Structure formats: structure tokens, C-alpha cells
Amino acid sequence: MTNSEFLGMIIKLIIFLPLILGSIYLIGKIFGKGDIVKGNKMKVIERLQLSKDNALLIVLVEDRYYLMASSQGKIEILEELDKNTFSKNDSLNTHVNINMKGLKEIFKLKGDKNENK
């Protein structure tokens, strides 16, 4: 390998390596725009761990709040919550203003619905 061949390979490397890396970056930007994957449409507001495998979650999906139950291998929507129950807080992303009486009322309503089925 002569010096001119070596110099030619270095010049090609300097030219094509940034083109290849730039192409990889652009392809990632173009095809990596999944909103739900990035968490722009859905957010877990509050999580209450009840046991090792069971939890209650308050989840914001677009502009609706849901009370959900999570257990081993299963997630269930228990109730859609009233938007007026929640308020924005400047120091936190979102703050939940819900008390035990409200939760008991939700579970009472859920139990009444199940008994009527």
C-alpha cells in the first residue's frame, strides 16, 4: 500500500463516516416519533402499592383521569374520575387532591355496579 492509497482511504473515511452517522441520526429522528412510547399521551399521576403484586393507579390519558387496579398480569380500569378532583400545581407536575372518603365512594359505586350485573 502506497502513501497515496493510504491518503485516499483516510480522505474517504473523513468524508463518508460523518455522512453515515448523520444518516443514522436522521433516520432515528424521523422514525422515533411515537408519542405514546415517549409518554406524551399517558402519565401515571399517583400509585398506591397495596401489596407486593397489587396497586391502585390514577392515570391521566390525554385529558381524562382513570382509577386503575394493577395486579399480577392484569390491569383493569375501575372508574373514570371527575376532572374537577384534580388541580395543577406549579411546584409539582400534577397534584392529586383526593381523600379516603372519595375513594370509598368510588369503590362503593363500583361494588353497586357489580352487584347489579
UniProtKB/TrEMBL annotation:
Its main location: membrane. InterPro entries: Flagellar_biosynth_FliO (IPR022781). The chain crosses the membrane at residues 6-28. The keyword rRNA processing does not apply. GO terms for biological process: bacterial-type flagellum organization. Keywords: Cell membrane, Membrane, Transmembrane, Transmembrane helix. The keyword Transmembrane applies. It is found in: Cell membrane. One of its GO terms (cellular component) is membrane. This is FliO/MopB family protein. It comes from Oceanirhabdus seepicola.
